[in-house]
Structure formats: structure tokens, C-alpha cells
Amino acid sequence: MKTDFEFSPSFTMMTAHLAPGEQMKVEPGAMVAQSPSVNMKSGMSGGLMKGLFKSMVGGESFILNTFTADNSGGWVSISPGTPGDIKSFDLAPGQNLFMQGGAFIASTANVETDTKFQGMKGMFSGESAFFLKASTTGGNGTVFYTAYGAIKEIDVTPENPVIVDTGHVVAFSDNVGYKIGKVGGLGSSLVGGEGLVMNFSGNGKVWIQTRNMQSLAAKLIPFFPTRSN
Hints:
The chain has helices at residues 48-57, 186-192, 213-220, and strands spanning 2-6, 13-18, 23-26, 31-34, 38-44, 63-69, 74-78, 86-91, 97-100, 104-108, 111-117, 130-136, 141-146, 151-156, 162-165, 169-173, 176-182, 196-202, 204-209.
């Protein structure tokens, strides 16, 4: 699938050029424009119960839209709901990509997503207790993920682990493990303005976002009107 990326990294829009009969799965509301030669069909993501579960705990929509090009081919442009970037990851058979809830925006037709429980450590991470796990059902596939802000790729090796604030983690590859921790001691966390972090180690990649939606919400809340008694 040929793709073009425009206006990155702050307001990225991706255009996928579909060959005749080629399909792409897209999150609802992400389509910006398309050619008349592309048809859209909505369906449940992985069946009724699986789709509901992913929607509740994984941040993925219950419904996914499938765009299919007719015999002349076509194109579809998509963008995220918040100002930010879109990146792609090519999946080989047996390979996984783990994403924070809400990061998935589109994929080739042979990519499936499922939820992966972080374990009890995830309950205290400040983010979702579940990750989305993307893998292919056959052959190579591509998953597209998005973030609030620009996306930076970091190489993780046994010699170079990395610590990331939980609100800035977007995705990570296979062979990367993590532990939940704090920056400094309890006193430093209380007065230093930093919360929980993820300590990544192993041999793979981590993708981070330059902005934090929770931090934005915290700055906006004092300006919201309050109900007077």
C-alpha cells in the first residue's frame, strides 16, 4: 500500500493509495476525504463480545470501517481526532506491536488487534491497564498509529534502557519489557510534578509522544465554569 504523509508532525494527514480490490481498516471518524471509487462498509471489530471488550478496556472503537477500492483503485485520506502525528509499522508474521489505548487509527486488512492485560502493575501506571496488541493473520501487514503531538522513535538495547512518563508512551515492539516505577523517591514525585514512569529494557523500539493529554486537561480544568450554589 502506497501512503503519503502531509502536514506532519503537528497536524498529520495520511493518504493511502489503494490498488484495485485493496482494503484498509480505519477507526470511525478518521476519514477526511476519499475518491468516489472507494466503498466503505462498517462492521464490528472482532465480533460482538470481543469488540465490546476492546472498546471498554483497550480504547479501540467497537465499530471499524473497511474501505475497499473498486476495479480502478482509489485513495482515502485519514487524520487523528487530536493535533498530532501518524506513523506506520510493518508487521511480519508472528510479530506484534503493542499500543496504548486510542493509538490505533488504521491498518491493512490482514491486521487484527487484541487486548493484552498489563498485569497488576498496569493498574498503577496512570494509563489503561490494557494494551492493544496488533498482529497479522497471514503474510506481512501494516498498522498505523497516532499520538497527541509528534512521535519520536527510541532504540532500546540491554546497554541503553529508557525511562518514559506513562502519559507519553505510544507504542513499543516485541522483545521490549517494562517495569512501573517513579522518578526519584516519594517526596520527589510529590513536589517535582512527575508521576509514574515505565522503565523499558530489552532489545527493540519504543515510540513516545511529545505532548500529554492528561497534562493538557489538568491545565484547562481551572478555566472551566463551576456551578454555584
